[in-house]
Request: fold
Amino acid sequence: MEVRELTFKGESDPKLYACGKCGKAYSPKVYAARDDISHAAARRTAEECCKPRFCACGTELDTSWTACAPCRERKMLAKATVIDATEYKGPVSAKCNGEWGEGYSTDIGAMIESCHDAGEPVPAYCHPCTCRPLKIDPVNLLENATDDMHEAAADQVVDADELVAFITAWNKKQTCVTYYEDWSRVIIIDQLAFDDIMNRAAEPSR
Ligand SMILES: [Zn+2]
Ligand SMILES: [Zn+2]
Reply:
């Protein structure tokens, strides 16, 4: 992209470099380097500003990602460990509304059923979930409480064991659990559709 040089009134040496397309200006002052180096860097940044960027597959990128969405998806799937659908019983997350909404469902069966109910296509794959139950760490709690106090405060806590025992028992009563999509593992639901996603990598889209 064309670079426009900005100067101070009555002077001729450039102070800022602006992108010729969007007009955003870049200052050499942000670089802690010699004048010639910092000016070259600012000019280069202005040059790159509105330059179209491409994914390795040839697709033009319109976000700050370094790869397009299908390539990022394939990369994530290629790295993931494939889990057999019959060996996984817990909650799953997939590209569909899901039983619980936002893609989450109790298990694979419930996810497929929710797709059928909603008239949505069943996704080619889903991810197992990791879970985090509601839990308070009593040791952390005490550490935080005494953190900004005088140095010996932590040693002067009375009946810390009682608090730990109470919170441990309280933690056990909690039923609240949050599920997180685990991208490091994948369960293939439709092998043909999954292979199709993976093989599209071979044919650049432009
Ligand atoms: Zn620009
Ligand atoms: Zn791509």
Notes: Residues 19, 21-22, 24, 49-50 surround zinc ion (ligand 1) (CB under 6 Å). The mean pLDDT is 94. The chain has three domains: 3-51, 60-134+176-199, 138-173. The first strand starts at residue 3 and ends at 7.
